[in-house]
Amino acid sequence: MGLLDKLFGGGKKVSKEKVEARGQHMPELNIPVDEKFTIHFKKNGGKFLYCDSFTEISEALKNIVNENNWEDDPFFVIDTTLEEEFAEEAIAFTRKSKDSKVFFTRCEHLIAQNGSILVCSNQLMESKLNELPANVIVFASTSQLVESIGEGLKKIKKKYGHSIPANITTIKHFQANRDNSDDFLTYGSSSKNLYLLLLEDL
Fold first, then answer.
1. Among residues 10, 99, 109, 184, which one has the fewest Cβ atoms lying within 10 Å of its Cβ?
2. Is-contact 198 53, C-beta < 8 A?
3. CA-to-CA distance for 192 and 200, rounded, in angstroms?
4. CA 2 to chain centre
5. In terms of Cα–Cα distance, which of 147, 124, 145 is closest to 136?
C-alpha cells in the first residue's frame, strides 16, 4: 500500500487530533512511519508534495516556482548533483546564497518522531540554517523516512563509516501556522518557508 493510500483512505487511519491529544510522555501510537512524519511535518508548517515519479516531481517543482513567482530567481545549491538531475527544468542555479531567494537541497533523513529533516555538511557545507535563504525546497525519497533522530544518526554512521560528516542538524521549524504559532520551542529559531518534494522509491 502506497503512502497516498495510507493518507487518503487505505489502511488503519489515526487522526491528527488523536495524536495531538496525547501527552508528550504517553507511549507512541503504533502508526506507520510515513503517516506519523506527515502529521508532524505539516504541524511544523511544512508543505508536503508526494510524487510517485520524477515526472510528477518536475511538475510539482514547476508549480512551486509559478506559485511564488520565482521564474527569474536562481536556486542556491550546494549539492551539484541536483543541477545535473534537474538540468532539463527551466531553473537557473547559483552557488552564492546571497544571490538567491531559494535553497534547493537533498537531505539525509526524514524524522517521523517530530516531522523534522536531518541534514549535514553534505547538504549545508559549513552554512548555518539562519544563513540560508528563507525559502527551502527539499528533494527526498520515501526510503529516507526513519522513526527517530537516533535511527537517522545510526544510518548516517553506517553509510559514511569513519568519515562521518560534520554540521549534522535538523530543520524543524517552518512557517508559523495555527498549530504551532504558540509553541515556545519555535521562538528564536530559524523559521523557513519549506517545501518537501517526496519521491516514492519503495
1. 184
2. no
3. 24
4. 19
5. 124
- Supply the pTM of this predicted model: 0.81
Bridge partners, 135 (sequence order) = 102, 193
The three three-digit cell numbers of residue 115, written as one number: 516531522
DSSP letter (8 states) at residue 28: P
Closest CA to 118 of 90, 95, 73, 152: 152
What b/e sequence results for 106-134 when a residue is b if at least 16 CB atoms lie within 10 Å of its CB, and e otherwise? bbbbbbbbebbbbbbebbbeebebeebbe
Task: Read off the DSSP letter of residue 153.
Answer: H
Q: Report which secondary-structure segment, H or E, holds 116.
A: strand 116-119
Q: Look-up: residue for cell 506507520?
A: 32
Cell reading at 10: 487505505
Residue 64, judged by CB atoms within 10 A of its CB (0-12, 13-18, 19+), counts as: middle
Which residues are within 8 A (CB) of 47 and not within 5 positions of it... i.e. 6 or more apart? Answer: 194, 195, 196
**Along the 202 residues of the chain, how does pLDDT read in single tens digits?**
444 443 433 334 445 555 555 555 555 557 899 999 999 999 999 999 999 999 999 999 999 999 999 999 999 999 999 999 999 999 999 999 998 999 999 999 999 999 999 999 999 999 999 899 999 999 999 999 999 999 999 999 999 998 899 999 999 978 655 554 444 333 334 578 999 999 999 8
